[in-house]
Amino acid sequence: MARPQVVIIGSGFGGLFAAQALAKAEVDVTLVSKTVAHLFQPLLYQVATGILSTGEIAPATRDILRNQANATVFLAEVTRINLDSRTVVAEKLSKTVAYRYDYLIVAGGAGQSYFGNDHFATFAPGMKTIDDALELRARIFGSLEMAELTEDADERRRLLTFVVVGAGPTGVEMAGQIAELTQHTLRKSFRRIDTTSARVLLLDGADAVLPPFGPELSAAARKELERNGVEVRLGALVTNVDATGLDVKYSDGSTQRIAASCKVWAAGVQASPLGRTLAEQTGAGVDRAGRVQVNDDLTLPGHPEVFVVGDMIALKNLPGVAQVAIQGGRFAAERIKAEVAGHQPPAEFKYHDKGSMAVISRFGAVARMGKLRLSGFPAWFAWLFVHLIYVVGFKNRITTLLHWTITFIGRARSERVTTEQQLVGRLAVKQLGEDFQPTIAGTLEPGKIKH
Amino acid sequence: MARPQVVIIGSGFGGLFAAQALAKAEVDVTLVSKTVAHLFQPLLYQVATGILSTGEIAPATRDILRNQANATVFLAEVTRINLDSRTVVAEKLSKTVAYRYDYLIVAGGAGQSYFGNDHFATFAPGMKTIDDALELRARIFGSLEMAELTEDADERRRLLTFVVVGAGPTGVEMAGQIAELTQHTLRKSFRRIDTTSARVLLLDGADAVLPPFGPELSAAARKELERNGVEVRLGALVTNVDATGLDVKYSDGSTQRIAASCKVWAAGVQASPLGRTLAEQTGAGVDRAGRVQVNDDLTLPGHPEVFVVGDMIALKNLPGVAQVAIQGGRFAAERIKAEVAGHQPPAEFKYHDKGSMAVISRFGAVARMGKLRLSGFPAWFAWLFVHLIYVVGFKNRITTLLHWTITFIGRARSERVTTEQQLVGRLAVKQLGEDFQPTIAGTLEPGKIKH
């Protein structure tokens, strides 16, 4: 009889680790992803701030799986899942392809959420994709370039004000790195502006940074951030974002307008829309973040052949972190292997919390591992060690370690290149607001970029 | 009295080396460039083919010059040069800035030339900027991704046909690398297509590859190219390029239509339009490639305070290579230093030809140095050595050497990331031709990229 067909949607932590866990199974694996690469999202902020190259955190998925004979990788975006006919429909450009499955693992991940204010996105990019990171790289370094050019003091102040919305790990790490850039790295690189006069604001609606780390580390993180020149503003709700700044409402009822050119949005997440398509067909509920309710074994209610893993699931308040996706992907693979082999499959997905970490400054971090609580250098060292292990591929590990040496010891940034598209296309939007007309014809049109 | 003001236009080899040569001079140096980085153009093809990261060949100019106290760097595009008032006008987005100069060094470089057929550019990008390289990276790897997806045999063949126009060093190196990718690197990465069945064509109107290298090396290069699966077609004139292929007219009068998705244009160069602005004001002539006639001392006729260097000059048939720009920039700086110090300035620019090299395959190259003629491994080793020296910055040298080890020994490509903009925006143009409508809304509009 024909080998069971396993279709995996997504090349993130959940999808990739599921595929790899099926390497020795008697199944055919088809991994469909809308991106060519496996993105190591936790290090995205290092691409945005010029530490790492895109290749180091986003190796090509088909190369990671090249020696796994039973795995096929397709670059296409899944637009429909038909549970009754057990088919997945994916599209790329003008092409439409359909795949039949016996088992389906949905690992579509999550995107940024603007809590219903999607127009914020134009002025405050999120931190979910390589495009996001490169766009932010262009905005961060580009703002300083523009500040060096301008003669207008108010505009210069606006260009030298950076606002990060959301004090979770991503927001904290971004704010810390932007402060490191302006306070140290670029201090000597400009002649007319003093980059150390730049302001870095970290806003959050909650009353603490990194709440899940607990009061102790949360306080330590805040202290370290402020020591490095980051202004932490809590109980701060962003009510509007536009080209020239943003409006904030504080918990005490007061409001404020902050003039800032470069805004980063790290506030909320929204599960892949695939979650809704699944829910619509099964009646399984989705929560406010669009995450699907699943059974304890990560299967879709009424569909033991369909698994949902990672950021897409609403189960026992599991956090949206890499480990939940990795362990979920592996669990789904184990169940499929057991069923195919006729063994008793594991009944319940048990998440093993390996803890979490956030880098705050050069050599400074906070880490929570089991009962252990670390801050400062020990936490940073633990971070270094753990992340080097998870960077995919031996070669990437070496170049990454090298870039980290360059940055952490030498305080330099060697990966700062931004393209015309990003620099002009994106910065112009910020500079000129809604009535922006491309100044470089063709940049935003199909076809060749003109210079 | 005030220190003499030296304005340098361009951050390429000519501009950067001129600025550095003025480090100890009693002058203020203002370097104006439309790109933030100093681009190491000879290695651009390695970014396009996934060997190097953008940061490695394009370090930030202001960082290279950060410790040179008398140098200021501005990111802006020069739109006007007024020789009478000795001012340079530059623009960035909505900003316009003017600089007065006592000495001006114009090092605007050259762009791709389509010999009056600029519409070719949409379908066959050139190899002059980081944007070009990333766009080609997206087209090369993207074509293979699309080929893996398609069910149509003709389309697959078209997607697996790569055409490089122009058999100079850039074209030869591109063709050689694409062949290396399809014949070796990616052989095991796809399941439905056999990448070794891909065709790589190298076209040129001349009757030899790398003519300036002389008949001997030219023949050796052609042999090595063909041994690696590149189809070399000489006496071939490209009469049209569109989304699905190109039309060729051969010297024997025969014509041919080649169906190919990915086309690379490395055929001709066109000097920066700044050349014309200069010529119009002085009556100095420009040649067909838009290069300015200059005096033996690289000054503009009638303007001993204005130097033109690098790809922009028409002088004694000097080639458009890095060394002409480097030596020219340094010569201009020497003259300025001498005049400022009241010494006798060097009267004539003498170009010292250090030779030229082109890499053809893994461990295979051709090199011409003085009387010395090398091919094969010795030439390749010489290339490795020379280029490592010229890569700017110690850190870049290390990571570059590392990436080269990865690629040349391990045959891998670690820098293959392409953004949605590049992959979708550009590939779609190729796939759908002129009537392309963006399939991912926002990708080609100002503002945030939607996913």
Written description of the protein model:
Two copies of one chain form a homodimer. In chain A, 55% of the residues are buried. Mean pLDDT of chain A is 87; it is low at 422-451. In chain A, strand 12 and strand 13 (245-250) form a beta hairpin. Chain A has two domains: 5-34 and 76-112 and 270-340, FAD/NAD(P)-binding domain (3-Layer(bba) Sandwich), CATH 3.50.50; 118-265 and 362-410, FAD/NAD(P)-binding domain (3-Layer(bba) Sandwich). The first copy, chain A, has helices spanning 13-21, 44-48, 54-57, 61-64, 130-149, 153-159, 169-185, 214-227, 274-282, 322-341, 376-390, 394-409, 420-432; strands at residues 5-9, 28-33, 71-75, 77-82, 87-92, 95-100, 103-106, 110-113, 161-165, 199-203, 230-233, 236-242, 245-250, 255-259, 262-265, 268-271, 292-293, 299-300, 303-308, 313-314, 356-361, 364-369, 372-375. Chain A has 451 residues and is an alpha/beta fold. Chain A is built from 13 helices and 23 strands. At the A-B interface, helix 3, strand 3, helix 5, helix 12 and helix 13 of A face helix 3, strand 3, helix 5, helix 12 and helix 13 of B.
Strands of chain A, total number: 23
In CATH, the architecture of the largest domain in chain A is 3-Layer(bba) Sandwich
- N- to C-terminal distance of chain A: 59 Å
CATH class of the largest domain in chain A: Alpha Beta
User: Main beta sheet of chain A: strand number and arrangement?
Assistant: 6 strands, mixed
Helix content of chain A: 25-40%
Question: Do you know the CATH topology of the largest domain in chain A?
Answer: FAD/NAD(P)-binding domain
From the helix content, strand content and strand pairing of chain A, which structural class follows? alpha/beta
Counting DSSP H or I runs of 4 or more residues, the number of helices of chain A is 13
The count of domains of chain A is 2
Radius of gyration of chain A: 23 Å
Our estimate of the beta-strand percent of chain A is 15-25%
Overall pLDDT of chain A: 87
Label the overall shape of chain A: globular
The order of strands across the largest sheet of chain A is 3-2-1-7-19-18
> Which chains have the largest interface?
A-B, 85 and 85 residues
